[in-house]
Amino acid sequence: MPISRRLGAFIVILILSLSFATDTMAAELIVSKAKRMLEYREDGVSREFRIGLGSAPVGRKSRQGDRKTPEGAYFVTHKNSRSQFYLSLGISYPNPDDAKVGLESGFISRAQYAEIEEATRQQLRPLQNTRLGGDIFIHGRGAQSDWTWGCIALDDEDMKFLFEHVRVGDKVTILQ
C-alpha cells in the first residue's frame, strides 16, 4: 500500500477513534449535601442544580428508614423513565464502605457484604433489601425542601436534563 494511502487510512482511523472517545465520555455528578447542590460535569461542561435531600439529612445513611442521604462514592445503576417521582437515576447504595459499616454493626451478614462488594465490582445494582436500606435515587418532583426518604430530589426540568445526559455507570460522589 502506498504511503499516501496508509497515511489517509491512519487519519480516518484516528478521526473515528477520537469521535468515538468523545461520544463515550462519562459524566460525573458531585452532590454537596451541605450546600444542597448537585454539580454535573462532562467533557469540560459544568452545571449546578439545587437539590432536596432526605428529611433527616445530617450524617451518613446507616440503616433503612433513617431518612438520611448516603455519603460516599457511587455510580448510576439504572434509569427509570416511569418513576413515580417524574424521572429517576438509581444510585449504587449501599457501596462496600456502607456494607463494611453495616457488617461491623451487625445489620448485614458476611454473605450480604460479599454480595454488595461483588455487585459493585461488576458495576451492578447492589443488594437492596437489607437493614442498610436501598432504593436510593436522584429523581424529580422538587428541590424546595428536604422531603425524601434519603434520595436526592431536583426540580423536574433539572431532572430532565440529567436524565438525558447521564449514563448508567457514571460516577456519583455524595459529600457531606
A few lines on this structure:
The chain is α+β, with helices and mostly antiparallel strands.
Order of helices and strands: HEEEEEHHEEHE
Largest beta sheet: what is the strand line-up? 3-2-1-8-4-5-6-7
Relevant CATH superfamily: L,D-transpeptidase catalytic domain-like
User: On the 0-100 scale, what is the average pLDDT?
Assistant: 90
Q: How many DSSP E strands?
A: 8
CATH topology: L,D-transpeptidase catalytic domain-like
Corresponding CATH architecture:
Beta Barrel
Terminal Cα separation, in Å? 60 Å
- What oligomeric state best describes the polypeptide chains here? single chain
Largest sheet: 8 strands, mixed
Overall tally of domains:
1
Low-confidence stretches: 7-12, 14-22
What is the count of DSSP helices, taking H or I runs of 4+ residues? 4
Q: According to CATH, what is the class?
A: Mainly Beta
What is the molecular shape?
Answer: globular
Describe the structure.
The protein has helices spanning 3-23, 96-105, 110-121, 156-165, and strands at residues 28-32, 37-42, 45-50, 72-80, 88-91, 137-139, 152-153, 171-175. The longest helix is centred in the N-terminal third of the chain and has 21 residues, at 3-23. It has 176 residues and is α+β, with helices and mostly antiparallel strands. It has an eight-stranded mixed sheet with strand order 3-2-1-8-4-5-6-7. It has four helices and eight strands. Helix content is 30%, strand content 23%. Strand 1 and strand 2 (37-42) form a beta hairpin.
